[in-house]
Amino acid sequence: MNLESKLPDLGTTIFTQMSALAAEHQAINLSQGFPDFDGPAYLKDRLNYHVAQGANQYAPMTGVPALRQAIAAKTQQQYGISVCADNEVTVTAGATEALYAAITALVRAGDEVVCFDPSYDSYAPAVSLAGGKLVRLQLNPPAFKVDWSAFRAALSPRTRLVIINSPHNPSATLWQADDYNQLWQAIADRNIFVLSDEVYEHICFTAEGHVGALEHPNLRERTIAVSSFGKTFHMTGWKVGYAIAPAALSAELRKVHQYLTFSINTPAQLALADMLNAHPEHWQQLPAFYRAKRDRFAKALAGSRFTVLPSQGTYFLLVDYSAISELDDVAFARWLTEHAGVAAIPLSVFSAGPFPHKLVRLCFAKQDATLDEAGARLCRL
Ligand SMILES: Cc1ncc(COP(=O)(O)O)c(C=O)c1O
């Protein structure tokens, strides 16, 4: 048999590799983005409740109505925009499925998709499997700002989709209203859609806060916005997310979702609906919760030889290690795990080629004791 891979360049993701290396060396795992603490007790209680009540059969394909309505209400509260729970909100298996379904629904063979590197690692394989071509535009530290003239130059008659991500993983920067204006001006006259990955929408630290793509009235008509309850409720293992898009775009996304997963875990959806309705303060207080962790960890690193870049959002900090090592970032991340007992993610894995900066990403979604111990270890270098 001749098994010709459709994704020949892809191996195990760096997140899995670094987590395995961290376990092997009993290192503190600040590599993969997940909390080392549990989500709200109320949410767990509601899951138990709905399981006990027998809510254990298939959910409706688009998501249980109570959850779609709660998502629409939260969207209204946070962004001041009204979305139709029936036609514009789709519950998915984490943001990952929403991203995959959106790309599969929109990208045709030969289409071009623009993304900004460093970028989250699930975009490229999905574009490739859809037969599309990814056009990668480089963002550079420390501000990771889009060069809008380079963006306009990168558009072609084949451009079908632009993938954006704010708050941005891994750079921890945010888009401002002007970025969305620039994006709109560049694509207004073209048949281009936008996939906006906003999984960290509730984790941002600037005075302006997170600006969502849906808040831009023109972009809203072209955009599929994606979010994840895993990030918001510290339950990454539940894998429940959602996509919001105009009815016609949602209908296309649902055609893929229908045959990818069909529907999502029923009791988890009902529990999340209860949580959103009963405890909106959870997501409203998330910026303060994570700001305290960011500040604690940044302070712990102040005495180290790392240079800490500002983190405006997400639960990541970038640190520059050029005062410590000449190694490239992949080698340094491995060395750090083995010799300092702290696992990090190299930035080059978010780009097609080597990332020409000495930066690694550290996750601060950890208990204070974990952050203090990691800080102490990193200060010894
Ligand atoms: C930018 C970004 N998008 C999407 C995801 C995937 O989210 P989920 O776990 O809900 O599939 C992640 C998870 O780390 C992420 O950082």
Automatic annotation (TrEMBL):
Q: Which InterPro entries match?
A: Aminotransferase_I/II_large, Kynurenine-oxoglutarate_AT, PyrdxlP-dep_Trfase, PyrdxlP-dep_Trfase_major, PyrdxlP-dep_Trfase_small
Q: Which GO terms describe its molecular function?
A: transaminase activity
Enumerate the cofactors the protein uses: pyridoxal 5'-phosphate
**What keywords were assigned to this record?**
Aminotransferase, Pyridoxal phosphate, Transferase
Matching entries from SUPFAM superfamilies are given as: PLP-dependent transferases (SSF53383)
Q: Which Pfam families match?
A: Aminotran_1_2
The UniProt record lists the Aminotransferase class I/classII large domain at 27-377
This protein's record includes keyword Transferase: yes
**NCBIfam families, alphabetized:** PRK09082.1 (NF006569)
Q: What is this protein called?
A: Pyridoxal phosphate-dependent aminotransferase
Look up and give the organism this protein is from: Zobellella aerophila
